[in-house]
Amino acid sequence: MGNCSTCPSSSKCSIQNKDKCGKMLPKYGSIKNIIGVISGKGGVGKSTVTGIIASKLAKAGYKVGVLDADVTGPSMPRFFGINHERAEIVPLDEKGTEYRFVPVTSQLGIKVISMNLLTQVEDQPVIWRGPVINGVLNQMYSDTEWGEIDYLLVDMPPGTGDIALTVMQNFPLNSVVIVSTPQDMVSMIVKKVVTMAQKLSIPIKGVVENMAYIRCGNCGDKMRVFSKKSAEEHAAYLELPLLAELPINLDLAEALEEGETESYAALNTDYDTLASSVLR
Ligand code: ADP
Question: Which of 105, 150, 212, 277 has the largest CB neighbor count within 10 A?
Fold first, then answer.
């Protein structure tokens, strides 16, 4: 982290914010807050939580962007129902060595960039080694026409490997939200990513316990299907504040599948606590 008052570049520097010193900045726009959504393990609901938070913030009137940094397993275009669209790739010179990307805009005006909006066919894999993926990821952040953004949500790659490290080291993340499910084995893996963020001095907002319970259709009681421990106990193991407990919800699962995440999540008051915890 830099110290602007003693930095020799201070007079020429446009950042003037020691927390963002040395980090990449977007070339085409300005972003007030960057929030990473991270889990350490795939399939726990990281993309789901990203989609819910983005939809809620957009509905509340914020200018929102989503960077799908899960390059090898991107799901954001589907969740927003924009998977049949393609982000425009604009060459900046005749040789075609530099480009900028035009993000695809969702119904609520969320600007989304994802590997799946840049490749021709949605189910075509990217079979690239880490350094290539890292390069593309950096470009997806810095070379996208974001314009003015209040909140950029980064759907982080799972794990504590090279690609997650790229995001945490290069992007000026203001904070991260951790997503977990109520299983000791998942908590153990999620703890690794919590420690990684702490070692890199990235503030952590807290943990969202996803798939925390199902609600009985007859009596309305909460039934914890994965663990006898409470969400608070799992959060205590991670030594993090509990931001929200999200139930297993078939309507949500269907909305995600149908690309109707925004219309479902934006109007669902169950997600208000989660959205407001991000704004704090
Ligand atoms: P990750 O990004 O961690 O890999 P996803 O957000 O893609 O996980 O979620 C994996 C799958 O689980 C998705 O198909 C999604 O529909 C489903 N899912 C996630 N959270 C819930 C939930 N609370 N209720 C029902 N289905 C969910």
Answer: 212
